[in-house]
Every structure is written in C-alpha cells, then in structure tokens.
Write a structure and sequence with these properties.
By secondary structure, this protein is α/β, with parallel strands linked by helices. Helix content is 24%, strand content 28%. A seven-stranded mixed beta sheet has the order 5-4-3-6-7-9-8, sandwiched between helices. The radius of gyration is 16 Å and the shape is globular. The termini are far apart. 38% of the residues are buried.
C-alpha cells in the first residue's frame, strides 16, 4: 500500500483501529506495519469509562504510542493536550500525519526511548498510558522512573497494560491500584498517584 494512502484507510481494512468515543468517534487510525499491537476496542472502552471523571482538560502522555490510539481517544474525549512517545521513527512519522489529518493541534510526537526520555523538560502529566510491547519492558522499572522523574502531577492516573499471564509490577509507594481487569490476552489496570500516603 502506498505510504500516502495510510492516513485514510478503508473502513474495511483490518490494519486499522477506530476511535470509539468523543468528537472523533468513528475515525479510523492505520496500524503501523512493524508489529504494533493496538489496545483492543473493548479494553479501550473500559479504560475510558474508568477515566471519564478525570479526563476533561488533562495533559496526557502516551508512552510506546504505536498507533496513538490511547492518546487520540483521550483527545477525542476532552483531554487538553497529548504527548506521544515512540522510538520507532516510522510509526512516529505516521502518527504525525494522523494528527494533521484529524486537526489535533494540541498534540506532539517525540521520537525517544521511554526509559531515556527527558521527562523533567516536559512538564507534569495528569494521565499516563503505559502500553509497551509485551515482554520488552520492565514495567516496575518504568513505573519507578516515572515516579522519580517529576513528570506526574499530584493525583495523576497511570494506565498499565500487559499480557494477562503477567502479574502487576511492584508499584511506587505513592501509587494505588483503583481498577484492574483482564480481557482476552490482556491484563490492564489503573493506578492513582497520591503523594500524601507516604508522609513522614
């Protein structure tokens, strides 16, 4: 398929995912051809039902963005800004094209390794999506990095996705799991950050 056609795929093309709620509902996003595993529709529906009370006006960080489906869903449903991070330059270029096509002005794409990202220079985020390719990233290490980076607002919510055979990672003391579920081959959970829980 020619590269220029990827931003407007057929609704019947299996290599797309759709935005399922909000102002961009029904728009389809192409899946990069490099083994990207998009979050399934039913999982995203559940996750964004969880996030509804906090989503409007938030700054979101979509790590391991891939298709950008999580960050785009957040923007569609009222998030004020989203930063997409992926170390795959081809996926990042495709995502920039999608953001232009969807007129998502308050969004940017960063090409970087999530474990080497200069978080301190990016400001704080209210919602973070952690959806690395299964078996490639130590979520426990990444969660600790996020907590120490200064990238999380007080009261931030962190979404984590992993293979259902995995157990949840040991989390920073400031994080509490408030939702957890499995669907198909996916285990997913939502944590809330509350620095007050570790007062000396």
């Amino acid at each position: 398929m020619p590269a220029k056609s990827k931003s407007k795929p057929s609704a019947h093309n299996r290599s797309t995912v759709r935005i399922i709620g909000g102002r961009l509902r029904g728009r389809r996003i192409p899946v990069p051809p490099d083994g990207v595993r998009p979050t399934p529709d039913r999982v995203r529906e559940t996750v964004f039902n969880w996030l509804t009370p906090w989503l409007t006006g938030t700054r979101c960080l979509d790590l391991f963005a891939g298709t950008g489906a999580l960050g785009l869903e957040a923007l569609s449903r009222g998030a004020a800004e989203a930063v997409f991070v992926d170390q795959n330059r081809r996926a990042a270029d495709q995502l920039r094209e999608i953001l232009r096509d969807l007129s998502c002005q308050h969004a940017r794409v960063v090409v970087a390794d999530a474990q080497r990202l200069a978080y301190a220079a990016m400001g704080s985020f209210d919602i973070v999506f952690l959806d690395p390719p299964f078996g490639t990233t130590d979520l426990q290490v990444l969660c600790k990095l996020l907590e120490s980076s200064g990238a999380l607002a007080e009261g931030a919510h962190i979404y984590m996705e992993m293979n259902r055979r995995q157990t949840l990672p040991e989390l920073p003391a400031t994080w509490t799991i408030i939702r957890e579920q499995t669907a198909g081959q996916v285990r997913f959970a939502l944590a809330e950050r509350n620095p007050a829980v570790i007062k000396e």
